[in-house]
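RETRY 2/3 - previous attempt timed out on the joint model. Re-submitting the same 942-residue input unchanged.
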Amino acid sequence: MTRLLTLLILGLAAALPATAEIFTEQDLTAARELRERALERDGGFEIVADLTTRIGPRMAGTEADARAVEWAVELLEEIGFDRVWLEPVTFNTWHREFERVTVRAPGVAEQELVTLALGFTPATPDGGIEAELVMFDDLAALEAAEPGDVEGRVVFIRNRMERSRDGSGYGPAVQARSRGPQVASEKGALAMVIRSVGTSNNRFAHTGMTRFDTASRALPAVAVSNPDADQLERIVALGEPVTVHLEVGSEYSEPYTSHNVIAEITGSESPERIVALGAHLDSWDVGTGALDDGAGIAIITEAARLILDLEQQPKRSIQVIYFAAEEIGLLGGRAWAEKHHENFENYQLGAESDFGAGPVYEIAARVADEAWPVIEAIQHELDPLDIALGGREASGGPDFIPSLPHGLAVVDLRQDGTDYFDYHHTENDTLDKIDPQNLAQNAAAYAVLAWLAAQSPIDFGSGPELLEANQ
Amino acid sequence: MTRLLTLLILGLAAALPATAEIFTEQDLTAARELRERALERDGGFEIVADLTTRIGPRMAGTEADARAVEWAVELLEEIGFDRVWLEPVTFNTWHREFERVTVRAPGVAEQELVTLALGFTPATPDGGIEAELVMFDDLAALEAAEPGDVEGRVVFIRNRMERSRDGSGYGPAVQARSRGPQVASEKGALAMVIRSVGTSNNRFAHTGMTRFDTASRALPAVAVSNPDADQLERIVALGEPVTVHLEVGSEYSEPYTSHNVIAEITGSESPERIVALGAHLDSWDVGTGALDDGAGIAIITEAARLILDLEQQPKRSIQVIYFAAEEIGLLGGRAWAEKHHENFENYQLGAESDFGAGPVYEIAARVADEAWPVIEAIQHELDPLDIALGGREASGGPDFIPSLPHGLAVVDLRQDGTDYFDYHHTENDTLDKIDPQNLAQNAAAYAVLAWLAAQSPIDFGSGPELLEANQ
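RETRY 2/3 succeeded.
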């Protein structure tokens, strides 16, 4: 179907009244009950409090990863899901030991900058790396640079992330992190420093993954906190040569097997048909992963718990999936897609909560045309939560992205992320940054979504056809 | 004089109109010119930018301390003060090497806390200290504890600082830091952990001085960031024994001589009579000391520069004093009082800017009764800056406190410190936290104060009599 035709049909569909006849009165009553109960409770705050207190940081492949999986199984069994099981996810691991970056220039005292090594970057040789700094406005400027201006130097890319509700500033800014070190390496740089991909002027560096085409291209790369990036820019602006000394300790380890943890409320009529709610259990190593993604774990678990507490059993099955190793490359999501994609016609919808604890303001969905009125009807029940109807572009969240090429139908419950990148991937991602009321609004939204999706008279169209329809 | 009588006289004085006849029309015109020019400029922002960029952290006794003194002399000479000179301040030094504090409990993964060693606390023995944690609500609870509950343990005091405009929450909260380690040591504790004395929930620990009666009482003591203090409280609340492992590296060094840096605008009529504006040049080692006290350095210097730019020369001399080693015990202030107190009858007023860069909202002064109308007349010229008349209790700022027992007359230009303790003594005290407009308002206030104090027909009464009048 052409995109234009799709839009025309959407336009017509949007003009129709929200179709109360899609759901039974009983199902709608239950949805309203879920919504109201969710708002009366704490949104699963006690879940994220327990996870971040007992486990704290839980980087994929660490001892805390294994403890988090144990914690998850115990929690999900205690809540009373019908089934709880593990699915293995095997991956290479990396861990940070330390980073120490100092800068000096004529007329400038030697100063240490607040930095974090980027994920999977190598250690510096003994004694570190010392070289002149060369600053670029952004990745494009580095790409355009002559190798002679880069060779033997430490590259600094200074571009800033813009703050926005939908987090759309992250994509453009993160290029410097994800591709910059590779480009710098190709031009002969010795190391790389980027401005943190984050919106806060608090003095925390923002870590995250970077990619190298080959291991031989890998070079030490760190992010400096935003105030330190400002400082570096001011030092460069003094016009004298700036020298950077960089020491990073890090270690690659043996392959490790973690697990996606899955729990199911088994459906009464079509148990093989599944509504899948996701979040990821791993975190970066520096904060306690409260917003990223303890909040998501709490939201989907609380949503499912509310449904378990209903008198009715859902017709289709509802699964909550705690993905493993999201931060280091969506590895749990990839393993899940690999294992289940041949059965995607049975998966109704995927929806992952992985954007902190800000309130949901919009529902968007990538579903078959015939299922769009169901999304509209669901939005009608989300409207009292101030959740508007969005469009038909959706990713389902990071861990469902590997499932998109297999045609999984997905829903985004889009959260207000204005402040999310103040904390994301920093030491400062801790429990106190979560507002329980906002968490409850999220749990309400996921409960209503999961319940009505499980009761929908129409399938959402996962499978190869959905992929084609969207291409 | 009794305090009641003083208050009655004050009440009468306050009822009088601001006495325009105290100052000449020419002096008042100049004061207004200073006020307006200050607000058109950047308040000396370029001064604090240059200091924090070129020198960065400048803890007393470090190489950066010496560089800061050189920087100061160069700046003050370049501005064109009539005289610039140094006065030595000698002190013992300490420096931080590292701190690493981990916590664990049954059912709780080992986690590292964000901490900073308190100033002048000793290193832990090789291998660190490992012991059970015992938590107290506040210093009073620790003081009331049986030694048996403390001996051989790591003490944690959890009291929180309250946020307020005038920073009055600091005094009560800081007791746990300044006296807690001594008390814990007396009861046989092995080490001490306090909640940071600060108002932010960002994950920065707050350093500062602590005191031990004798060196043999000294024990390793750290502050944990507020989110980490919350985490520690939650772990304790799980009800299992909590084990802390604490490693601190620190070093005491040989006596070091730094300098108070003083610059003078020499008075035309009574050059021996001095209005003294202060700020301190040293900072803690972890931030760049932008708010504490780069801002003060900028404010007083910009104020004096505005006066230097006037066509008129002040009648009395105006000095700006960059005090050394404030953070480690008001050492520059003590040395200054020691050197100059016999001459305090010539010192008109002391006023230090050392509370960040929030706007001034009130003037208070500790001056002779006959000089109070002058303060009222000065306030009249500060009123357009939204600066109200306060009372007659004032300290002049930390570095003038050692001068109070010698009867120095002092003025407080009280700043809004609502956010000050979000940054104070943390890594997060960086240039971006300063609002140049607020800085300019401060410079305007100090310029008006210094100018009118230099032109006042009445002396402010420094000397032993002032001390007696206030006792």
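The first strand of chain B starts at residue 83 and ends at 105. Closing ticket.
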